[in-house]
Amino acid sequence: AISLGVLWTGLAPYSSREDFHSMPLLWEYAHTAGFDTAYFTSQNLMFGNSGRWLEGIPVSKFVSATTIDPYASLEVGADDEALMNRALDDMGTLKEPYFSVVHLSNTHFEYKLDDTLHPFSDELGYTMAARYQDSIVLQDSRVAKFLKALRQRDAGQRTVVLFVSDHGEQIGHTFSLYDEEIRVPFWIDPGEAPLSEEQRKKLRSLEETPLFQTDVFPTVLDLLGVLDESAIAPFRSRYAGTSLLRGG
What we know:
Helix content: 40-55%
Largest sheet: 3 strands, parallel
Strand content: 5-15%
Number of strands: 5
Strand order of the largest sheet: 2-1-3
Radius of gyration: 18 Å
Shape: globular
Number of helices: 13
């Protein structure tokens, strides 16, 4: 919940519950700036009561786990591939410019597997560590399929894609600060989006640099073109990070 708060509000992780609930969320900035908006998640929004936090966000497309599967579990959610297929269908109807979040859930404990794709279980035996690694392999293959389909579209070629996780995993989480829990994969693929050469240079210079999750939110606002708008000045002073287009 704290990590999602950081990603969607720009606040520092030690901010109060009241602050997290009073700040605008990314969709609200994008909608106000004239972007079509969408949220697709395979997570069951009863998990952590997160659905209540998202009530009323201005989106033209909203799909959650129970839209895909009425009996989706609280822990693993609905099938990620089914969610991404639905996202591809619905994103095709969004008007440019658009802002969309595709939120995957199957690498959450107990870790969804594919019976035909489990290289770590074959090598290490049926352990929870191997099961987790196999769920990552499955997610990687599905994300690759999603990106390929997205990039084949005219609008998809101009879409900036950010990939990040809320937290890492140590066969479970929230009980330590070991690297496995606090380090997550993060990449940005700008595609053919009209970034300046200076912005692309900044991103390339950070390719091997450990970054902070607090920088994701201002980076998204920068990509939306609203980070310097005077209307958000009261909120901007509370952001914990710096846009990666400006060095992070």
